[in-house]
Structure formats: structure tokens, C-alpha cells
Write a structure and sequence with these properties.
Order of helices and strands: HEEEEEE
Oligomer: single chain
Largest sheet: 6 strands, mixed
Number of domains: 2
Helix content: 10-25%
Structural class: mainly beta
Strand content: over 45%
Number of helices: 1
Shape: elongated
Number of strands: 6
């Protein structure tokens, strides 16, 4: 048992040295022959030189908050999760923020898809998406171009191909723009 612990300690302490030597050798190579690192899993256990905004594949813990990774694929857990592209499940207590495109589930108090599209499900107090193909369930649901279902107290969509269920339902680009309880857009 002592030998196993000692071997683990030596490997753990020596790994950063080897990683630094490998980084120096890679830096000496021409730009064309360098290997591009597309994803790091898990992101917070990397050894050696670490890219400023690495891609995450697998589990990302955003406690207390996340750094802004460009691409996240997998499970995102914590308080506040941010990324540019996301595929998977985001469960953050305060906010889920994706700038461009999201495919999967967002569960939190405030869920937003900035300028891109959402393909999947948003569940929270406030849900917003520029383009939605899926479902929004919350107190307030706001979306631009929408195909799917909105369930909440206040539902608002610019264009709608689907259903809204709630107290206040607004489809801006429809003949019947406001209808309480159920509104249908085609």
C-alpha cells in the first residue's frame, strides 16, 4: 500500500514538469504542425498550459460561478452557468446563460438564449430565447420565433407555431394577439 501511495505522489508531482517540457517542445514546432486542443475533460483538472477559454466535455461545476467557455457539452451544475454554445443539461440555481445556440434542457431561476436558438426545454421563473423550438415552462416565458409550447402566467412570442397556456398570452404576429388561458398560433 505504501508503494502505491508513493508512486501516485511521484507521478502527481512529476506530471506538471513533463507537461511544461511538452509545451516548450510544441511551441518550438512550426504553427502548421501544432496539435489543436479541442476539448478538455474535466476542464478544471488540466495539467500544464491551460487555454483561456477551453471547451468542456462532461461535467462542469459552476460553484460559485463559471468562467465563460465557448463550447460546453454535457452536464452543467451550480449557481451561474455561461457559455456561447451548449449541448446537454444545465441546472444552475440562479442563471443559465447561453449566447448563441443551445440544445437540451435549462433548469434555473433565469434561463436565457441570447441571439441564437433553443432546441429543447426551459424550466424556470423567467425563460427567454431568441428562437425557440421546444417548450418553455415558467412564470414568464418570452421568445421570438417560436415552434412549440409555452406554459406560464405570462407568455409572449413574436411569431408562434404552437400553443400558449397561461393567464396572459401574447403572439405579436397573429390576428388574435392576446388571448387569456389558451392562445394558438399557426
Amino acid at each position: 500500500m505504501k508503494k502505491l501511495v508513493m508512486l501516485t505522489a511521484v507521478v502527481t508531482l512529476a506530471a506538471p514538469l513533463f507537461a511544461q517540457e511538452a509545451a516548450k517542445e510544441e511551441a518550438a514546432q512550426p504553427q502548421e504542425s501544432r496539435r489543436v486542443q479541442n476539448a478538455v475533460w474535466p476542464a478544471f483538472f488540466a495539467i500544464g498550459e491551460f487555454p483561456a477559454n477551453p471547451d468542456v466535455v462532461g461535467l462542469r461545476l459552476t460553484i460559485p460561478f463559471s468562467t465563460q467557455q465557448e463550447n460546453v457539452t454535457g452536464l452543467d451544475l451550480g449557481f451561474w452557468g455561461r457559455s456561447i454554445y451548449f449541448e446537454g443539461i444545465q441546472i444552475n440555481l440562479l442563471r443559465n446563460d447561453v449566447k448563441d445556440r443551445c440544445a437540451g434542457f435549462q433548469v434555473g431561476c433565469y434561463n436565457s438564449i441570447g441571439s441564437g436558438e433553443m432546441l429543447g426545454l426551459q424550466v424556470g421563473l423567467w425563460n427567454e430565447a431568441n428562437s425557440l423550438r421546444g417548450f418553455q415552462v415558467g412564470l414568464v416565458n418570452v421568445s421570438g420565433e417560436t415552434e412549440g409550447l409555452q406554459v406560464g402566467i405570462v407568455n409572449r412570442a413574436e411569431t408562434m407555431h404552437g400553443y400558449q397556456v397561461g393567464l396572459i398570452n401574447v403572439i405579436r404576429d397573429a390576428e388574435l394577439q392576446f388571448c387569456p388561458i389558451v392562445n394558438i398560433g399557426f
